[in-house]
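Q: Hi! Curious about what Aquaporin Z looks like structurally. Here's the sequence.
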Amino acid sequence: MSESLAEAAPPTPSVGSKLTAEALGTFLLVFGGVGTALFASNHFTDPGSGSAVYVAVAFAFGLTVVVGVYAFGPISGGHFNPAVSLGLAAAGRLPWREVPGYIIAQVVGGLIASTALVLIGLFGPEGWLTTAQDAGFASNGWDEFSPGGFGMWAAIIIEVILTAIFLFVILGTTHKLRPTPFAGLAIGFTLALIHLISIPVDNTSVNPARSIAAAVYGGVGPLSQLWVFLVFPIVGALIAGFTYKTLLDGTKKS
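A: Let's find out. The predicted structure is below.
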């Protein structure tokens, strides 16, 4: 009986498979989300059209997560975000020893995606790439780099809050004892909602890999502000992870 059950159990993905899946998923997220921000904004140039760009970008990020979760989630868990990996580790859902590999794969996948966007831009209309980079290459930022002119503390606060919310949704919908049907859709729609809220504030990070990928090509200004979008999404994710494990998980026997 035990032998037949062992034969029926699906094989555990290898470390290499997991890291490849994370790199590909993060590539998809950056290529789809940042790519939409760069290419769509080139066409919505009339006054008052900014809201159309925000909606397009928000749903692009949400859709990339939905697609990525269903495509690569069965292999790696579908994190595509260093903050998510750290938050899941804090909640006891991912061994801490696996976190560095996940983060490296995510950052590499994001950088390959933004590099691909630059290569496409090289063959775009005259001046397109220079204009996109002068505008920050869809990077995150505050003050003059904030779409709505919000300051640093606004960016810090919203990144902590929204990343924590994102982790609470992920942890709740993927709970091993009470999983939510179509969890990938809930997670993707949550990310779209997060972008609708915070694009005007700081162009929405909640994902250090996404922030690194854009800032590398965004110039000195976005790079100088990158630390906020590395530190505070992780702070929000860790708060959510430890809080969920302590107060909401409900898997420990009393």
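A: A fun detail: The domain at 13-244 is CATH 1.20.1080.10 (Glycerol uptake facilitator protein).
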